Amino acid sequence: MSNPNPVSGSPDKEPATEAELALTGKADRGATMTSPKQSAPGPRPTLGRLFLDNLWAANTVTVTVLALVLAMLVGAVLIIVSDPDVLATYGYITARPTDALNASWTVVSEAYANLFKGAVFDPEASGFTAALSPISETLTYTAPLVFTGLSVALAFRGGLFNIGAQGQATMGVILAAVAGFALPLPPVVHLVVALIAGAAGGAVWGFVPGILKARTGAHEVINTIMLNYVAVYFLSWIIVQNGVQNPDRADAISRPVDSSAALPRLLGDNLRVHAGILLAVLATWAIAWLLNRSTLGFELRAVGANPDAARTAGISVTKTYVLVMVIAGMLAGLGGSQMVLGSTANALTPLVIAQIGFDGILVALLGRVKPWGVLLAALLFGALQAGGNRMQSYSGISLELVTVLQALIVIFIAAPALVKAIFQLRAARAARLQTSLAKGW
Amino acid sequence: MEPGEIHALLGENGAGKSTLMNVLYGLYQPDGGEILVDGKPLRLKGPSDAIRAGIGMVHQHFMLVPVFTVAENIMLGAEQVRGGIVGFLDRRRARREVAEVSARYNLRVDPDAVIEDLPVGIQQRVEIVKALTRDVDLLILDEPTAVLTPQETEELLTVMRSLKAAGKSIVFITHKLGEVKAIADRITVIRRGRTVGTASPEASRDELAALMVGRDVRLTVDKQPATPGRPILEVAGLVVDDDRQVRAVDGVDLTVRAGEVLGVAGVQGNGQTELIEAIMGLRPTLAGTVTLDGEPIHGWSTKKVLRAGVGYVPEDRSVDGLVKEFSVAENLVLDIYDRPPFGRGLALRPEAIAASAKERIEQFDVRTPSADAAVGTLSGGNQQKVIVARELSRPLKLFIAAQPTRGVDVGSIEFIHSRVVRERDVGTAVMVVSSELDEVIGLADRIAVMYRGRIIGIVGPDTPREEIGLLMAGITPDAPAPAPADGAATPGEATGGTAGGATPAPERPGNEDEA
Amino acid sequence: MSTTAVPDVAVAAVDEGFWTRPRKVGAVLLALGVLATVLFGALATGQQARFTLSETEGGAALEIQGTLGAILFGVVAAGAGGALLAGVPKRWFTLVLGVGLVAFVLSFLCWQVSAAPEGRNFMPMVNIVRGTFVLALPLIFGALAGVLCERSGVVNVAIEGQLLMGAFSGALFGSLSGNVWVGLVAAAVGGAFISLLLAVFAIRYLVDQVVMGVVLNLLAVGVTGFLYERLMQTDADKYNSAPRFGNWEIPLLKDIPLLGPALFRGNIFLYLGLLLVLVIHLALFRTRWGLRTRSVGEHPTAADTLGVKVLSLRYRNVLLAGVVAGIGGASYTLALYSFTKNMIGGKGFIALAALIFGRWSPTGALLAALFFGFADQLATYLGAIGSSIPNQFLAMLPYLATILAVAGLVGRVRAPAADGKPYVKG
Asked: Is residue B492 part of a domain?
């Protein structure tokens, strides 16, 4: 893959496809117009058709919503086929179809209702804390995803595919945690130092593939994947070292981070939302500024879009690659730091950062590799996580469904042509139906 | 085409020769017209149809898999297999076939050599063998000598003669007069996508050159005589390799003075690109010096060269000149974004960029819906104006423009030319590199003709274009009309030019079909 | 995925003068050898280091006094390094390098085994060899899946997902049908399903292949994890109790010392894996299909001008890759364990590493997979004898080795030229 711009199918290209989408929409309309039998309603397209066209042409939000809907449909199928009781009703669907449909509807709607209640608002909740709890949970899960999402998105804009956000976050969480329990520092300073340590850990882990890419041309995709695993093993090694491992525990868990290094909670001790989300917004703003309003961002975007032209204009491509990876690593490291400095955990465990690095890739793609888009995408993913927790405990639907939904959303986003194909399939079939009807008539 | 005939298709770069032949080979679909083979119209859906119809083609950029052996490349697509459905390759038979064809047409190739280890001339021979093993009657050779040394060219001509003797027909696409005269039975000259004449090889060089470059369109540029000042750019003994580590610039000396336009003419791929890239710090110089206003600049980074007061319009604007995804305004500051007033410290100042963009768009008559439109949505001419505007909007000592009007509409051409002249008139040294002879003649105060990595001659703009055309073909006036068999190179040039193993650079990928 | 440098990178590959690549490698090897001689020699004990040709302490064994062995093999490694440094004929390079590296490892083992507590200072070679193959098996299947895809120009980062889906559907349908063969077919189909998605999106919709691979991995983790929790955890008897292939002993061959018990008393997957390496190697380099596959991965335009159908060949090979990886996944669930969530646990990525380390060739991938399997097995063994070397660092070895390989420090690896580039005609 010597293509200097590895994201040939990246969301950056999507505007074009959407334009295409709009075009095909029109072409489709043209086709129906030329159908002679159909000219009865007049050559003017119907209002609904016009609306649909505009919707298509509209923007990325439409595609995202459609992708979400499609993903949830597939998810519903999975819920149904994995529920033996509901499946049983399909055994006699010809005899009593309502049974099957009712059972399916019940299980799916209940699951998705719980997803919503866990993520946004529960109408039955009483009291301030209970009412705010879903939002608080959503924001808690959102914060680190914003950072890893920004990390991946920034690298994308610079023409690099950072699959290593997971490893960078891992190094970040290690250094942040060690700084958090090993250094005796006063409250605010301690937190700042721990965050800086986390950022530095990620930066180092980003620097390595960056410099290798710049110096030897070694592909960053391979190296970041490999470094992810190196980081995982490093984490599992360091946890059990003396001075790191919790002396009161036999299993692989580190000493807890001092409260002086913890991110303060925003809405009292009963709600988990913490200052990380504020940092996330700040980081989004900072990256947006960096990308669009700074000379560095200019270089980065130029290199990402056309390294040849950038080089001809005197921009150092190699320097930019290294810098991009260092900043991306810093962001992922900060995201990782929140996993111990925030409210989800306060000590290192082998699974402390969960999947935030890999989820960051999805978040970046979903957010169209734009900073504020990443923030919104992270919010959606955070909501799915939070809702998924409730869905798991209330409906017994595994949290893994959330992973499925997330992956599906991005798959549908990644190929607008596919979404188009799916939705046009219907239009085409309808058209065929009309013509066949017309013939019979 | 008749059997056993060598038909030369002569024309300048971009005249439409390659496109025509790609249609013949089924790679492109014709928009109109038809192809007759043995009197029957032929519809080619793809290369396999062409092969079946007995048409073989040797592409300008070889269609060989670099890591395969010669035999593997020749087998591919027409494999001889054993073992039924499993399809084991019958390498022995393939080797024998290669040996047979090699022997029959005197084309020595080692079937077990790996392509990427072979010199270009041998690779081409492999391509020819590949076509011959497929029993073609008509062989299309697209600019076959563009990448060959004189000796290799000589060998190729011999091969072509023996193929002709074996009854094969050959279409020979080229822009080199000497070769045409040496080998062709019939000559068709193409210009701007049309046949402008047929000639026999007895026609004089001057006639052919006139047909090829055409006299009818002579671009005129209004300009006063130059008043050259002190030397600004001095290049001495410059040696540069191309991307494949083949010598592309082989000891170039030239000087550009303040207030004059030096035009560099030459068939593309004779080292012009590498010369400029070396001056700009985009390509390492192996030997020689480059000085700008007395200061040696070779070895400098591109940024430093640009900062020192050099403006540069690269020859391939979509690859090197513009970031298509960027807005017009952003492209207008692509190499000065970090300079005041556009950038201060780490911060960009969008207001300043926007204000300057507005000004430039007006000054340079860039037709764009807005300064924020992506530059890729603009027409070629307007894209080029963006680059010219960018480069001319800072104080310059030297302005280098490579192919400044390639793929640009007539109106924009005039505009760009007038700006170039205006830049000269304010005392900037200007260097214009173009494969459009008209452009060079129209703009330049002095014309340097480049051939095989060297400056073969420097002439005034009043020199007859035929004479320049001959220089471009490597024929110097003092050693005219070489023996036909000598191909393109004069004896003196051949010895001088190849002593250092000079082979001209291949044309850059992406330029091949710019018809 | 290639290692082509970006345009303005000063390519460091210019080996000028004395410091050619073999010499640099030789210098490194010499340093390693000296290190082994001094460090391992000093740390090794006077105990015997026994390498038994069985699964226990008994039986025939090769033994050597610990310190002596560590020093001796260290000197051999250093000597090999010195030879490379002095300059050896090119065709001997690999051989000398191999000898040097093996000697280094042996020196290390002499130290480790001799330093083990009394009574445990032996290394059962049968266990080690068998463990190496068992651990390498999913890597072999995965890397072969990678070979099939990438040789035809489609980057396969989805190996992990293909293995996982294969393991899952093998377990599910094996359990439902109660028949291992049904399970095996289902596993192949499962892997091919992920491949199909990859192929359609990469070839038809031109989605970036790496992006697609990453997303497909997550999809596979999600789908299998979800169904695992919903079905297999609630009713393991019905959904997660697939029958298993037994071990097949091969007459005669099973009695070869060391290799017999390690290799020829294995299950179908072991034989299938080794057979596939051979078959794919032959097919790739000896048949029409292979020639065309490689041409499509290297220079699709050239292939197209000669009438090779580029896209359909890519579709077929990507699907085939899914089948191979799916069967590889089944080597877990239809032979060793019942399905658990995310049970592949990154093996797909080590398989990717093996593919790259093995330079995109089936035999190279086999050797790389065995090397990685050996590192893995060694980590387990050293854990068992209470070694001072943390096993996490041994586990890192495959990944670090791959980084070094890609960076061109251990020979230059070159991917198929058109790997990852969608082919658009015209």
From this structure: no
